[in-house]
Amino acid sequence: MKQLLLLLLITLTQAREIPSDNKIQGRLNIINGASAECVMHQFYQQSKWEQIEGEIGRNGIDGLYIKRKNNQIKEVLVAESKWNKARLGKIKKKTIKQMSQAWVLITLNKLIKKENNPTYQTIKNFISKDQYRARLFRLKPTKNNSIQISIYKIKNKGAKAFDEIAERQLDPIDINHPKNSFETNIVESFNECRTQYLNKYLPMITQSEVKTLLTDNYLQKKDIKRILKK
What we know:
With 230 residues, this protein is α+β, with helices and mostly antiparallel strands. The chain has helices at residues 2-14, 21-46, 101-114, 118-128, 181-201, 207-213, 221-228, and strands at residues 50-52, 55-56, 59-60, 63-69, 72-83, 90-91, 96-97, 133-142, 146-158, 161-169, 173-174.
């Protein structure tokens, strides 16, 4: 009887915490969203853009990039990353849309207030004069265990006009069989980010299980629950 109780105690001690469905989904939303942002940074850095920190906590501008000439800022790019079908949000009682010129200026003002960095003021001057590029960067899981990058120009000519115009749609990238160095770098960034955030938000999953999850292009609640119930 004592041995049975001891075995039961050991089993209960070794049992893993299984978060609620809502918690799993919430954490996956963060993981997938962060992965899209990591891929975006890799994409633009490969295109010779210099990344400037644009976030305040978990809010702010996902991608703030510049190009310099003779150590002077000559080009500014503001980009927002979205995973799958996620949409741009709104602030100020839903009157100002994320990534509009007004939204970007509000966010930059917060950065200027928080950080004594003249780079932000220079970037703000570009934004105020409408001398910048605005892009929506979407990373979407597709068939055959692939991910696809789509990029949209954002045109904001005032509070009532806001357009997203398709600019580029790259060929799908098979995450288990990238074809070239560009695709390899994208997949490595995608998986490095997923590993980091899986470890942070779902630490009960072992590294071996994380490695298995990374062979899938789309981490979903059912995948996490299946692993946790093993």
